[in-house]
Amino acid sequence: MYCSTLNAQLSHKLAVAALVFAALFTGPLGAAKVSFHLVAEDDWNAGRLGPEHFLPDGEVFLYRVGTFEPAIVGPLNEKLEVPPGEWSWIAEGPGYVSVLAGVLPVTEEGAASERLVWHAVPACQVRVEEATDFRRLTRLDLVSLDHGAVYPLVPGVREQAWVPAGKILAYGVTVRGLDGIASPRRCPAGAAISFGVPSPPPPGRQSLMGTALLPEDSENKPVDRAALMAAFVSRDAALPTLPTAAAWSPGRVTLFFLDVEATAGWIGLEHPELRTERLLVEGREGEAWELPATQLRERATLTLRVDYRPRREHPSGRLHLYRCGLRRGDRASLHHRACRELPLTRELIRGLHEYTFPGLDHGQYSVDAVIGDDRVRGLGNKVFPYLSADDDAFPASEPVPLWELEIYGEITEDSEPVAGEVRIEGTLTGVTRRRVFPTGDDGFYRLLYFGEVADIFDLKRSALPEDLRDRPAAERMGLFSMSDHLQVCDAAGRCRVFHISSALLGEGRLDFELGSARALEVRVEDAMTGEPLEGAMVSYRPPSPALRFRDGRARYVEPEDGHAVAMHTDADGRLALRGLPGKPLDLAVLRDGYRPSGRRGLVVPPETPVRLTIELEADERQGATDLVLQDGRELGRAAILVYDENGVWDRRCSRMANGRGRVELPGLCGEEAVAIVVHPRAATTLLPPGALSGTGRIEIAAAPDPPLLLRVKNSDGGPLAGAPVAVSLGVATLGPDEQVFAATGHGSVVYLRTDAEGEVILQGVDPNGAVAPQVTVAGENHSLGTHAAGDVVELVID
Question: Which of 228, 302, 484, 520 can pair with 577 through a Cys bridge, CB separation 3.0 to 4.6 Å?
C-alpha cells in the first residue's frame, strides 16, 4: 500500500540524513540503543540542532518495515533498545509531528547511528470518532496532502495521532485492500478533529487511488512536480475529471478521485519532462480501489542520420517533426495535416549529418523535409519513428537517403523535338497545384525531385515488380501518387495525360512523344454569362496508357477499365488533350458552385482535333451537398467513397469534399449508388442511394469519443500483428484500397493492419449508428453492433 512503499522510497535519503548527527554505535551485539529527538522546523532550517532545541516531551513509534502496527513505543530524548531489522518510525510531540517518518536499519552488529535528530512541523490532533466500528478495517491511514506524509492508525493500538496541520485525507483498508476514502478536511495547528470509517461510494459511483513514481534526473534532482497534469477520462463522460486531492512525497505522487462515475476509462498522466502514461480503470460500482503504481519515465531523444544530396541550390531546407498520436500507424494514415507539428526543426546540411530531437514522448512521429516550396513527407523514406511505452529509446536507424533525382529528355511531336513542359498536377476538386519542368535552351526538360521510396502499396498500385521490396531504399526512389497526374504539354498547352498509376523510378533519360493522332480541345464556360471557368476538372475514361519508367527504361501499359484521368482548365477555361485512345470516351466536368456535366460515348477521330464547348449552370444549391457535423461545423476535405448497387467501390465517382464540406459527384455517377463518408471528426457514415445526387445539407454524427479499440490475438493468446482490417457498413466495405484513397485527403483516418501489439483504433466507427458496422480481420467477420464507444473489442484468430 501507499505507506509501505513510501517508507521504502525514503530509506536511503533518511539514513544518509541520520549519519550527519550520529556517531558509530559500539554497544552489545543483537540490539542497538538509539535515541530519537525532534526540533521545530524553524530551528532545523536555521541550523539550530543542539540539545537545547530538542522538543522536551513526546513519543516515537517504531514499525517493522511493511507493517502498520508499532512494535516499539517509547519517549523522545531517551535511549531505546531496538532489535535487528529495518525499522520505520514516526515521532510526535505536543503540537508537533515529524514529517515523512524515518527509516532506521539495525544489524546484528548494531545501528549505524545512536542518535537521530529530525525536524517536526506544527500539527493538529486526529482522533477516531467514538462508537466507530472498526471491525471491517485493519487500519485507517491519514494523509497530509500538504506534506505527502502518511500516518497509519490501527484499531485498538492507536486511537489518535498528531499529523501536519493543513489539508488532511483519510482512507480505510481491509484485508482485501482499499475500502473507502473520506473527503479532504482542513485542520489548523493545535486543533483536533475526528475521523470515522470512510464509507464506500454510493451505487453507480467509485473512488480511485493511483500512484505515479517519478524518476530523478542525472543530477539527482526531482522533476518539477507542479508540472504534472492528471485526469480521469471516463468512457461515457464528455469531460475529464480532475483529481480531488494529490499527495506528494519524494519520488512519487498519489492521486485521489472521489465519487466519480463507475465506468471504465483511464487516468492520464502528462508532464513536459516525462512520458505520458495511462492507468487503466475497470469501473467498479460502489467500490474504492487502488490502482497499481506506475513508473513514469524520462523522455527520449530521436537521432537521425540523413544523407542530404540536392542537385541545385534551394532557398531553404529544414527537417520538421510531427507527432501523430500514441499508437503505431501505417504510412497512409500519417498525413502531416492529421499530426501536430512540434517546435523542433533542424536546418539541413549537405552530406551525411546527424540530427537530434530531444525530449520526445512515446508515440508515432513523422519527419518531413521542407525544401523550398516542396514538402518531402517522411523524408521520402517512410521515416515515421515509433517509440512504444516500453521502449527505453527510439530504435537505431540506417542513414536516410534524401537525394534529389533527375529525369531529363526531349519532348517530341512526330519524332521532332518541340518546346514544352512536364507537369505533375493534382486532380482533387478545386486543386490546381502544379510542379512544372519546362524545356530549357538546350531543348531538354529536367524533372528534379526528391524521391519517395516505394513500399508494397506503391508497388501494387503501380504494378512494379515486387522484387524491389528487398532492394536498398536508394534503389526504390521515385514518384508515386494517387492524386497527381503526369502530363506532358507543348508550348501551346496541348497535353498528353498519363494514367494515374504511372510511376517514375530512379534517374535517367526519358523522351516523351506527344502523339498528335487523336486530340480534343475543350472550353468550359458559365452557361449564363459565357465567361470562361478556370480550374474546372475535366476527366475522361478509358484513360491513356500508364507509363512505367525504371532506371532509364520506359514501357507503356494499358490500364484497367473503370479508372479516369483528369486535367484542370486554364485562365481561359481551356484545355487540350493529345494522344487519346481510339475507344469512345466518357467525359465528366466538375467545378465548385456549378452543376456537374459530361458527355458519353464521345468519339475522337484520328488527325482532326475535336473542339467541344461545355456550359456549366451556376447554382449553389443544385447538384451540391454540404456535409456538416450536428453542431454545424463543416466537414472540409471529407472523403466520399461511392459504391454501386452491388457494393463495388467506384473510384471514378469517389472524391473529397472541398474545404467547406461541399461535394459534387461527376455527372456520370448514377443515383443508385451509396456512399460512405470518412472524416477524422465524424462518425463513418453510410449514405443511402441518391443522397448526394441533389441539393441539400446532410448532418453527420460526430466520431465516438473515445473510439473503439480492436485487439486481435492468436490462438495462443499473443498479439496478432500485421493482420489486414476492413470495416463494412451494409453492402459497402472499407477495404485497404478504399482506406488508402480516403487517407490521401487532408488527414482522413484509416485502419489497414494491426500494429505490433495486435491493436487498431477504429476511429470514427460508431457501433450504435444507423447501420451496424462489421469488422473483418484476416478473413473472419465480427459484428460491432453489440459494443459501445470506447470498448475494447477482443478477437481471437486462429
Answer: 520
